[in-house]
Amino acid sequence: MAREIHEREDLLRDAKALTTRVQLEVDSVSKAVNVFAGFRSSGALSLYFDSEPAYHFNTQNQLRRAYVEDRLIKAEVGQLIALRRRQREDLSELLRYELSEAEQDQFCHALATRLDELRCVLQAGRYRIVGQVPADEDVAGRLLDWLIRVGEVIVANSANVG
Q: Cβ of 56: how many Cβ atoms within 10 Å?
């Protein structure tokens, strides 16, 4: 399941699979929000908003998995599946739930809205770079380019990066 993420500096330092990464403080409607974005060498993007939610995309910019409200959401054959861990006495269960078409549409619409808001904030320059790797690249610019290109949210066929 999702690892608890308390400090974005840890992701900035430790997320080695994300070869190009940036931590931003962006001006949201009501408050400043920390956003961490990282690209794998393949170009696949991972996005974290504060400690939750987190969204992971494949190399075709399709949603492959997400961590939202203590649930792992993963793609299977173009369908979103929610997994939630339930602890009972000495037993840990993983409960599986297939999102209905309406729930999946709502989830994708909410994500598309969040991505569009982030695009607008970046285009307006209403952000501050907290840190990035490598230090000499325009990672925020790369993220903005990705946000402009992505268009609608499409669910991947699998949760794999490829």
A: 22
